[in-house]
Amino acid sequence: MNAAEVVQGPVITEKGTLVNELGNQVVFRVHPRANKVEIRHAVEMLFKVKVEKVRTSRFLGKTRRVGRHLGRRPNWKKAYVTLAEGSRIDFFEGA
C-alpha cells in the first residue's frame, strides 16, 4: 500500500481537537489492514513530520436499516499519532 491508501483522512471531532491541543496528537482514519509501522511511514512521508508513537483502534461497522432492507456499514480503523516535540499538523491553518 502506498501512503495515500494507508492514511484515508483526518478524524475531526471534539476529542481529536482536544488531544491535538494537549498532547500534540493527530487522529487519522486509516486502512483497516495497515499496521503501526506503515501508518508511521505514511504520516511522516505525507506531512513531513517526525512521529513518536502510533496507537490504533478498530471499530465495527454499524448495522443500518432503510425501510425493510438491512445493511451494514464497513469496519474501519482509527490511529492516534503522537508527533515529536516541535512537529505540528494543522488542518485549519487559514481559519
Spatial sequence of strands, sheet with the most strands: 1-2-6-3
Overall radius of gyration: 15 Å
CATH homology group: RRM (RNA recognition motif) domain
Q: How many discrete structural domains?
A: 1
Query: Low-confidence parts, pLDDT < 50 over ≥5 residues?
Result: none
Q: Categorize the overall geometry.
A: globular
Overall pLDDT confidence: 93
| Topology-level CATH name | Alpha-Beta Plaits
The CATH architecture assignment turns out to be 2-Layer Sandwich
Share of helix, binned: 25-40%
- N/C terminus separation: 33 Å
Number of strands: 6
Number of helices: 3
The amount of beta strand, in percent, is: 35-45%
H and E string: HEHEHEEEE
CATH class: Alpha Beta
Main β sheet profile: 4 strands, antiparallel
Structural class by secondary-structure content = alpha+beta
Care to give the gist of this entry?
The protein is an alpha+beta fold. The chain has three helices and six strands; from the N terminus they run H-E-H-E-H-E-E-E-E. The radius of gyration is 15 Å and the shape is globular.
